[in-house]
Each structure stands twice: as C-alpha cells, then as structure tokens.
Amino acid sequence: MAVGLQDFPFIPGIDGIRIGVAEAGIKKPNNKDVVVFEICEGASVASVFTQNAFCAAPVRICRSHLAQADSRYLLINTGNANAGTGKSGVDNALTTCQYLAEQTGVPLQAVLPFSTGVIGEPLPVAKITAAIPDALANLSADNWSSAGFGIMTTDTLPKGSFREFKFEDKVYRIAGISKGAGMIRPNMATMLGYLCTDVAIAAESLQQLLKKTTDKSFNRITVDSDTSTNDSCIAIATGKAGNPIIETLDTPLAQAFEVAFTEVMQELAHAIVRDGEGATKFVTVEVVGAKQTSDATKTAFEIAHSPLVKTALFASDPNWGRILAVVGRAGVEGLDVDKVQLHINGFEIARDGGRSPDYLEEHGVQAMAPQDIHICVDLGMGDQMDTVWTTDFSHEYVTINAEYRT
User: Fold this and answer.
1) Is 406 assigned a catalytic role?
2) CA–CA dist 275, 234 (Å, integer)
3) 75 in a domain, yes or no?
4) For the domain that residue 240 is a member of, what is the CATH number?
5) What is residue 189's predicted lDDT score, i.e. its pLDDT?
6) Is residue 9 in a domain?
7) Are 184 and 390 in contact (CB under 8 A)?
8) Same domain as 156, residue 137
9) Domain ends where: 253, 273, 293?
10) Is residue 6 part of a domain?
11) Any domain includes 374
12) Residues spanned by the domain of 83
C-alpha cells in the first residue's frame, strides 16, 4: 500500500561502485532477483547483522569473510533466505561465492553473500550461478534503481536515498538502497540495506558511524516485532572523493558526513515502514520525559508492537485508552501514572493520567484519521526521550503473510 512512499530518487552513481542485475527465476519467472555490487580496491567496508541466533547461512559467511579479506563483491539473491538450511545452506552459499570469485579473479573471501525470501528452502545454486554472468555483463555505475527492484520480496516499491553534501568547496555523495516490508524489527539494521559513499574514511571509523546511525534509524523501526534471520546492512566508502582520510568522527568533515549519512539511513528506514506489509498508516511514536533513554525506548516499542494499538490505528478509532494501558505495562520503574500526558497529532488526549478536560471525541477522530500519525507520550519523570517508527495492522497484512509461500 506504500503510505506516502516517494518515487525512487535519481542516483547519479558513486565513483568506485558498479552494480549488475539479472533474472534467475528463483521464485518467479522474469523477475530481477540477483544483484551484484562491484567494489573498487582499497574501499572501507562496515557491517551490522541480525542478532537473531538462528541467523542465515549468508550472514555467517559474511561475518567470516569480512574478518579474512578486503571485500570486492556483494552477491545478493531474493526469493530464498537460505536460513534454516543447516550445513548444506552454508555449502550452497559458498558455492555461489566461489563461482563469482572465479568469474572475477578475486579470492573467495572477497565475496559477501546475502539472501532474502522464504526460510527453510534449499538455495537454488544452479539458478544463481547461471545468472551471475548476466549480472556481471550488466555492471554499471547507474544501476541503483534496478538494484532497488532486484532486492525486493514483498515490497511494493523499491527504496532508495541519495544525498550530496558540500564541505570546503568539495562535493561528496552518499547513496543507499534497502528492502523490507515484513518480519521487521531489525534489532541491528534492516532486512537488507546497502550504502555507498565516495568519502575516504578509515574502516574502524566507518564501522563506528554505521553502528551509531543504525541505532537512530533501522534499530528504531518495527512493522510486526519479528527480527529476521537475514538482516544485514553494509556501508562502503570508496575513498574516490580524494579527501584526507577521516580517522575519527570528531573532525568537521566527519561531522558533516555523519549528518548526511544519518539522513540517508533514516530515509531508508522510514521507507521500509511506509511500505510495511498491508500498512495504511505511518506512525511516529515519541516518548519524552523519561528518567533514562532505555525507558523511553522500551515504552515506545511496546506501543508500536501492541496489536490492540495497531488495529485501532488501522480503524482510525480513537481508542486511546489502549495506549495508556501499554504505557502502564511497559515496565518503567517508578512510573507515576498521574503525571503521564498523551498527545496524538497535536491534540492533547490525556493529561495527568486521565482524559484531558479539553478533549472531545471529535478531536480523537481528527487525530487518528490522517495517514501520518504522531503519538507523543510524556512520562513526566525526566528529560530523556526516544522515537520509534511503525505501522498499523490491516486485513491485508494477514493476507500477505497467510499466503506468503503461494
């Protein structure tokens, strides 16, 4: 349904990155489902992965390969997650990596595999290897849009973001794509996300930045509270902009880079929520007045995960008592419910733990009607806050997931 999701942006390319896309017919015929990223020599690469203990075979291989060699290629397939596939899943993923390595003349460990789709099915190795030559022949600096389509599963639209920022008369670029619509509570990153920049930055600093911005973006979204087996986010800095390499994040250039990088990360994260399976609402849940940030975070997530709240949002039903009930069970130590305030889309709904004396039912109806909804809860305990982005739950969400394998 794609709630207010913008068209895929024009991305002019990142020097040092080429992308190829091919059709392997993994789940559906005539469908772009294999994507290859070619990375220039000398690039810095950072990563975050799912914290799900039942992680997919490609996640395990990526972690191993990143520790052994400089990354030169990303190999992505959709239609099959290669998760819950045991040792054979690892062997199959390594076979596809080895084939790409042989085709490009790089070590096996220089290839990072990524998969997304149905869990528990064997990886169709023959289909993927057959598509790799076509993907390599298709390599181009301006294939970002095709790649956005090529990593989709239940997404309705491709998701991309691009920023240029200027520092001391030099222009720098950041581009990214992501995919995800269901099984979204990343707890690290997103289902799949790839960000590239021409900035020169040390790998350690890029890793620090990716983790920091992930916690402000992909780690603050939820569609259905399920953490995927395959969540992966990769950041690549080619260094082709020619700036003095960023060694720490406290320099003026690093700070300008962080602002733009965070914008791209958040835009990609928001796009996943806006394209959430069956979503009709984009919901910002802001919790302020917490004694500590962790209290704000867990309260916001409890609200965002609540099926009762999410179904009320779908119905545009101002059943705001459900939100107060969630706040009360969120486990905030020392909570004084008589100090809690609730606003929805600017309307004061509850004051001092109860219905606001200024509240009318028509206010609640107006507050819940728009596609974009902002819920703000003030715990009245301190000055810490956090924000989470989520969706409603619709009939379509159930249909999509009931029929996922058909």
Assistant:
1) no
2) 21
3) yes
4) 3.60.70.12
5) 54
6) no
7) no
8) yes
9) 273
10) no
11) yes
12) 17-273
Both structure tokens of 365: 């109806």
pLDDT beyond 70 at 215:
yes
Catalytic residue (one of 50, 78, 154, 190) = 190
Residues listed for the chain: 406
User: Do both 53 and 70 map to the same domain?
Assistant: yes
Instruction: Give the model's confidence band at 52: pLDDT under 50 very low, under 70 low, under 90 confident, else very high.
Output: confident
- In the chain, the number of structural domains is 2
For residue 201, pLDDT over 80 is answered with yes
pTM here is 0.93
Give the end of a domain, one of 221, 245, 273. Answer: 273
Do 252 and 295 reside in the same domain of the chain?
no
Q: Using an 8 Å Cβ cutoff, are 188 and 180 in contact? A: no
